[in-house]
Amino acid sequence: MTEHFIYGPVPSRRLGHSLGVDLVPYKVCSYDCIYCQLGRTKAKTIERKPYIPVGSILDQVYQKLKEGVCADYITLAGSGEPTLNSEIGTLIHEIKKHTEIPVAVLTNGSLLGNSQVRESMMEADVVLPSLDAYDQQGFEAINRPHPEISFETMVHGLVAFRKEYPGQIWLEVFILDGINATEADAIQFRDWIARINPQKIHINTAVRPSAEAHARQVSSEGMARFCKILGKEAEVIAPFRGSEKHERRANVEEDLLSLLARRPCTLDDISSGLTVHKNEVLKYLEPLVRNHTIDMVKKGSVVYYQPKKRQ
Ligand code: SF4
Q: Is the dihedral of CA 210, 296, 294, 249 positive or negative?
């Protein structure tokens, strides 16, 4: 079976319809965030190498473009930290030569202290890094980074990147109940964010199943209070509203499994992302749940579908 490095377009609360590109295999990451939707990181790394060769990725991107894919962004992200792929700069450069669709990079920002990593992202249209802590203690508790990454190197990397990068930076702050979500926490974040000076600040919380049970969702009132302290560039990420247009697709089951391998989704997420009517999605979901290929997980009153837990 061909390995797929491209998925979607999938619904993204930040990027509309996003054509996802995997740059590293599951789950190559420098962090082990307690809120990660992909489960725990087995082996944290900061080694940069061509985990997936850029030629193999580009073949699939070109194929999608040839099929006339309609997406708001081509998003370099996937099953771990994309800047660990040492060929990310070449990939961005080559994609930009072939399409007008803007390129976004979803990164945890941990390697931005490295000037080569900063340089490799100069041609991206938008970079979406994370900042989930304002000191070493919080950084260790939430992101559980590789031991060679300190809070100071990470955050100074973000500040340096802002000075060099001409594009848009949309910073994500992921807040968790009882951990980093009080108004006092927001004031501490505000000082660092002022130094990073992103064009947008996205406040997110654990709406999907997380790696650890203590990574708990913040209430909408708590999100709003936190957001207000960060000023007018800050917004709580609104739930995605997908297109109402639906069309029949031949390879729904394959695309569905590919989508769920990246993150847990609701029925609405799947329907919008694959542009397949909900009733049709259910025809594929139900047998997959029955034969234990995927699980249904309840978070509050919302049901998510995800692959059976990897051991
Ligand atoms: S949330 Fe992102 S940065 Fe954190 S462990 Fe998961 S893949 Fe890595």
A: negative
32 lines ligand 1 (CB under 6 A): yes
Distance 233 CA to ligand 1 centre (A): 24
**Residue 116 belongs to a domain:** yes
Highest-scoring range by mean pLDDT, 24-28, 53-57, 274-278: 53-57
What are 254-272's pLDDT values in tens digits?
888 888 888 888 888 888 7
> How many separate domains does the chain show?
2
Q: Whose CA is nearest to atom 7 of ligand 1?
A: 80
Examine residue 1 and state whether it is found in any structural domain, yes or no.
no
What DSSP state is assigned to residue 237? P
Pocket test for ligand 1, best of 32, 34, 37, 38 (most atoms within 8 A of CB): 38
Pocket of ligand 1 contains residue 128 by CB under 6 Å: no
Query: Residues 211, 254: one domain?
Result: no
Ligand 1 atom at minimal distance to the Cα of residue 80: 7
Nearest atom of ligand 1 to the alpha carbon of 27: 7
Alpha-carbon distance 308 to 292, whole Å? 7
- Does one domain contain both 232 and 259? no
125 shares a domain with 262: no
- How far from 199 is each of 128, 196, 226, 227, 250, CA to CA, in Å? 10, 10, 18, 15, 40
Whether 266 and 176 map to the same domain: the answer is no
Geometric angle at alpha carbon 170, from 23 and 43, rounded to 5°: 35
Atom of ligand 1 nearest to the CA of 144: 5
The last residue of one of the domains, among 241, 275, 292, is: 241
pTM: 0.84
pLDDT at residue 33 is higher than 80: yes
Are residues 173 and 26 located together in one domain of the fold? yes
Is any ligand 1 atom within 6 A of the Cβ of residue 284?
no
Give residue-wise pLDDT tens across range 113-169.
999 999 999 999 999 999 999 999 999 999 999 999 999 999 999 999 999 999 999
Domain that includes residue 285, residue range = 249-311
